[in-house]
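Lab meeting tomorrow. Look over both lines:
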Amino acid sequence: MSSESTPYKDKKVISIGIVRELTGLSLRQIRYYGERKLIFPDRNEKGTRRYSFSDIEKLIEIANKREEGVQTNEIRREMNKETKPVEKRMLKEMLRGQFNAHFRNNSNNKPF
């Protein structure tokens, strides 16, 4: 996905210092959540981490769950469960669109 088509919330342009200020988390906590594969910052050419507004929202959500006593591995499992149905639905819609396009162009059959 090119940066021009990336929604502003997903553009990785925010430094870790700003993320710290916005979330109230320590630098160590922010880095730790990245190490635990809960967030995925980009790195610029100098190796500096860059975060998005979506990452900040996710960090706040993670911090709230941690305060409730939820372990990071449970948070990661929950996050994976949330994304998989969306990915499956998108794949199903893409396949349906491909089938419809194929059969509309190659026959008089009704689309699926």
About this structure: The chain has a mean pLDDT of 84. Residues 71-112 form one domain. The beta strands are 14-15, 42-43, 49-51.
